[in-house]
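Exam review. A common question shows you a sequence with its C-alpha cells and asks you to describe the fold in words. Practice with the pair below. Do the first one on your own.
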Amino acid sequence: MRVFLVVIDSFGIGAMPDADKFGDAESDTYGNICRSVGVSLPTLVSLGLNNIDGVAKEFGNGAGIRPVESPRAAYARLQEKTFAKDTTAGHYEIAGLVLRHPYRIYKKFPPDVVADLESAAGTHFIGNEAASGTEIIQRLGPEHLRTGCPILYTSQDSVLQIAADTSIVPLGRQYEICEAARRVMVGERAVGRVIARPFIHENGKFIRTEDRKDYALEPPGETMLDVLSANHVRVLSVGKIYDLFCGRGIAEGHHTGNNAEGLETLSSLVENLSDGFVFVNLVDTDMLYGHRNNAKGYAAALEEIDGALARMLPQLRKDDVFIVTADHGCDPTTASTDHSREYVPLLIFGDRVRPQNLGTLLGFDNIAKFVCALYGLNGDADIYEKIMR
C-alpha cells in the first residue's frame, strides 16, 4: 500500500476562534487570495476544497468561492490543538505529536544568549531583531558586506535565523555557524528551528538562494513516523520534512530547493514507488510568497501545485490514499509578514475513500490517527471506518 501526505505550506482557510490572540483575526489565506487577485484550482476544488466548512463565500460582482456538487474526496476543516502557528508545531501535530508547551518565541535575543552564540560560532552578529527575512537582508546587507558579520534575526515563530552572503561567509561556514547556534538554543532557551538563510548580492539587491537549511530539535515525543518505521513501513520524505523531524523514522529523505523540484520528486514517486508512506512539504507558498506579502505569487504557486496534482492523481493505484493539508496560514494580503493562526484543509482521495464532509475536526493529529489506522496500527478506527470503503 502507498500513502501520500502533501503539506501545502501555510495554506490556511480562515481564522481560528482564538486567532485574535495572535493578531490574526482577519487572516484567511485562501479566501483573501481569491478575493484580492483570484486563483484557479480546478483539481483541489473538485476534491472538495470549496465545500469545507466556512470556505465558500461571495465577494460581489459575480465573484466568489463556490462549492462543487459532487466532491471526489473526503474533506474537513482542521483546527490546531497546539497553541501556536509555526511550522514545527504544525508538522509535529500532523504527525500525531501535540506540543503542550510550544517552543519559545523571541522578539530579540537577550545579551547573554547573543554572547553565547558569538562565542560558540566564533563570529559577531548584526541585527538581532524580529523581522521579515527578505526585508532585513536588504536593510542590513550593506553593513554585512562591510563587516563580514552574519545577520541574526527571528520572527513571530520559534526560530533563530542567520543570514549571510555566500561570497562573504561561504556556505559550509554558514552551516557550521548554525550548527553551533543549534547547540546553544536548547533547554530553557530552545527554539523550534535554527535556520541558515544564505543569500547573494547582484546589482545592489540581496537575493536569497535555495541553500536554506533547517536545524530542528528532535521531536520530544513519539510521532507517526516512529510508529510506521517501527512496524516496517518504509517512510520517505520530500522537502524540509527530513530536517523538521531530524530524520527520525525516515528511511529516505529527498531534499528539494523549491516546489518545482518537490513536485517532480513526488511525481516520480507516484509513478515508481512500490510501497510506503511519503510525507511531502511544498514550501514556496510560505517562504517565497506568504512572508513577502506577494498574493499574486502565492496564487501562481497554488496553481502550479494544482496542475501537478491534476497530472498525478490519475496515476494513483487502486489501493493508494492521497492526502492534502497544510500546517498553518500565512495570509499575503494582511500587513503582517508572519504566519497566521488559521484552520487548514484536509482532503483525502483514493479509490477506497468515501467522498463526504467530515465537518470541523479538532486536531491536526487526526491525520496521524488515520494514517496509522490505514496500516492497521494504533490509529483511530472510527475515522478509518467512516472514510474508507
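Now try the second one, then compare your answer with the model answer below.
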Amino acid sequence: MLRRSIALTLTLITLLVGTTACGNRNRTAERLAEDTQEAQKFDSNLTFNNVTLEQAKEGGQLLWRIKAKQATYSKDQRNASVIEPQGELFQDGKPVFKIQGQRSDIQQDGKSIVLKGQITATDLRDGAVLKGNEIEWRPAEDILFVRNNFTGANKQLEVTAKEGRFFTRDRRLELNGQIIAKSKSPALQMRSEQLVWNLKDEKISTNKPVQVDRYLNQQISDRGNANRADVDLKTKIVTFRDSAKLALQSGLQVTGDSLAWNIDQKTLTADAPVTIVNPAQRVTISGDRGTMQIEQQVATLTGNVRGVGEKNQSQLSADRVVWYLTTQQFQANCNLSYRQSNPTFSIAGPQAAGKLEDQQVAVDGGRVELQIVPQGRGQ
C-alpha cells in the first residue's frame, strides 16, 4: 500500500462508522444506505498536499520514492492521482532513475508501481532520457516498462516507438512497434518493428526487417535493407544479414546475405555470396566473397566469380576478379574463362584484363592477347 495516509484514513473511517452507530437505531434502511455512500465518497476523495510516497524492502532498502504537490487516494490506498510528481527509482538501494511529470495516476500492487500521464525518466548514470504516457517499474526484475508513445535519447541516439522495456542492470533497451532510430555520428536513420539498443556497448540490433538510411547534407545518400542488422556506433560499422541490399550514392547496388559497411573507412565487406550491379552500364558481377573500396569504387571478388555484360552478352568467370567500377575495367586471375555471343567466341587462360562493356579482353598466359571488335564498329 501507499505508505502516506493509511493511519489517517482508517481513523476517518472509524469516526464515520462510529457516528452512524451512535445515531437513531430505528432509522430506515434508506438512511443507512445514504450514510454509507457519503462515507465511501469522503474516503475515496481523501487528499493530501506535499506528500511523499515510497516503497521499501523488508530490510528498509528503498525501491522507489515519489514526492508530489498534491495526492488524492483511492479507497484501497493502492491508487493515487498526483500533481507534479517527482522522485527516484532505486536499484540496490541507490537511485538509478529520476522520475517527473505534470500530473500522474499512480498504481501500486506491491510488486510494481505504474505512473500514467506524460512521464519522464532520466537515467542518473549516463543521462539517457526515456518518456512515455505510462511507465511501470518492477524493482524485483530490474525492468522499467515505457508504454504508449515511447521516446528515448542520449548523446548518440534518438528513438521513437510504441513501447520500450529497459533492463536497468544490463542497460539494455528492447523496443517494439513503429520504431525510428536516428544516430548523430554517423548520421543514420533506422526503421523497424523490433530493435534492441545496448547502451553500455553502444550497439543496436534487430532480427526483423529493417531499413537504414545514411544522410549527407540532410539528404539520403545511401540506403540499406535486410531481414536482420547490427549497428556498432563505436566502430561505425553497419552489418546487414539475410537478404541484404545496399544502394550506394554512386548508383551501384550490392546484394548478399552478409554485408559489413564501414562508414568511416568507406569499405564494404561480404563474407558470403555477394552480387554487385552497375545499372547504368548493365554489368553484373558476383562471387563467394568480396570487398569494395567505396570511395575509389574498386571491388575485389573471390571464389566462383561471374561477370556479365548485358549490352553485348559477354560473360566472364574466374577465381578472383578486381573490378574498377568507374572505368568498367577488370583484372581476372586463375581459371579464367571468357565468352560472348556476338560474335560467338570463347577463350580460357590463367589471367586476363579487359572491359566487358566494350568486349575487349586481353588474355595473358604465354603472352596471348586477343581483341574482339563488335560488328558494325568502325563502319
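Model answer, second protein: Confidence is low (pLDDT under 50) at residues 3-29, 38-43, 367-372. The helical segments are 6-21, 29-44. Full marks require stating both points clearly.
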